[in-house]
Write a structure and sequence with these properties.
single chain, alpha+beta, Glutamine Phosphoribosylpyrophosphate, subunit 1, domain 1, 5-stranded antiparallel β-sheet, 8 helices, 32% helix, binds aspartic acid, Isoaspartyl peptidase
Length: 328
């Protein structure tokens, strides 16, 4: 079976490999897409770096205090959902009708339990709701109005849809409309910003989570990979924890997050080889673009993307933080 992936190994050097000796305990991403130095101002870059740093610090504080990987993932993602810079929570992209519709998932690598929500419009932190679905219901995925009613029952913070909408997203939607661009995943790579986290705690438990507003100009009701366990999020203590970002339709069709775990489990690939195969092989083979962070049970991190850039960062077991944005 590994023979089928032999082409992948030549591509491994394109991935952002982490030093073999350092154990990573938390990694995050803030979306992949057309992110280049040319379109970034120093001030804006600083803002992104600050937000990513804060998310890593919050998540690391949980792990350092002996907390669970699930708690660390939620803590990190919450910071990014609350930041207007990212396409998750406040700052989410808008659907064709100018409404923010949010998706989120979380998965526990120890129990293989998972929770997800899709198309919610009024829940301030969708990652918290995904976790409630996992822990307080026998289900995995709740959608739309009913998910919002459940959030209310659970005492989660409810906000008007306007809370999520920042001026820049309105402008992006307007530009999309003016250009008459159809709502196709191919056009969405300029509105990056989905957020995700993977963590490994002291007990050796892995967890993963992802949160997004989806694709700019999407049809109302469209659900992306960030709401689908196995596509945008996966965690299994036996292999790895994965969060993806990019053109969700392709991640769903390639079942990308689960594929990485499956390649490790059944083809004995390393996390780096598996993530490279999934992105450069499966995703790119379908014509899709995006990226992935995947953390194995030994703390080895693979960060692989076939876009120009990806907001990303990680913290090692000594608390050392690294943040990167561009390909180089
Ligand atoms: N994967 C997300 C979606 O398709 C979007 C993104 O990651 O930017 O909903």
């Amino acid at each position: 079976m590994a023979l089928g992936f032999s082409g992948v190994f030549g591509l491994v050097q394109l991935a952002q490999a982490q030093p073999d000796t350092v154990r990573i305990v938390l990694a995050i991403h803030g979306g992949a897409g057309t992110i280049t130095r040319a379109q970034m101002t120093p001030e804006r870059e600083q803002q992104y770096r600050e937000a990513l740093r804060q998310a890593l610090q919050e998540g690391y504080a949980v792990l350092q205090a002996g907390g669970s990987s699930l708690d660390a993932v939620v803590a990190a993602i919450r910071v990014l959902e609350d930041s207007p810079l990212f396409n998750a929570g406040r700052g989410a992209v808008l659907n064709r009708d100018g409404v923010a519709e949010l998706d989120a998932t979380i998965m526990d690598g120890r129990t293989l339990k998972a929770g997800a929500v899709a198309g919610v419009q009024t829940v301030k932190n969708p990652i918290l709701l995904a976790r409630r679905v996992m822990e307080a219901t026998p289900h995995v995925l709740l959608i739309g109005r009913a998910a919002e009613a459940f959030a209310q029952e659970q005492g989660l913070e409810i906000v008007p849809n306007e809370y999520f909408i920042v001026p820049e997203r309105r402008l992006q939607l307007q530009r999309l409309r003016e250009q008459g661009i159809g709502i196709v995943p191919e056009e969405a790579s300029s509105t990056y910003g989905t957020v995700g986290a993977v963590a490994l705690d002291r007990r050796g438990n892995l967890a993963a989570g992802t949160s997004t507003g989806g694709l700019m100009g999407k049809l109302p009701g469209r659900v992306g990979d960030s709401a689908i366990i196995g596509a945008g999020t996966y965690a299994d203590n036996a292999t790895c924890a994965v969060s993806t970002t990019g053109q969700g339709e392709y991640f769903i069709r390639g079942v990308v997050a689960h594929e990485i775990a499956a390649l490790m489990k059944y083809a004995s690939l390393s996390v780096q080889q598996a993530a490279s195969a999934a992105i450069y092989g499966t995703l790119a083979g379908l014509g899709g673009q995006g990226g992935v962070i995947a953390l194995d049970r030994n703390g080895q991190l693979a960060v692989v993307f076939n876009t120009e850039g990806m907001y990303r960062g990680y913290v090692d077991e000594h608390g050392h933080i690294t943040i990167q944005i561009y390909r180089d």
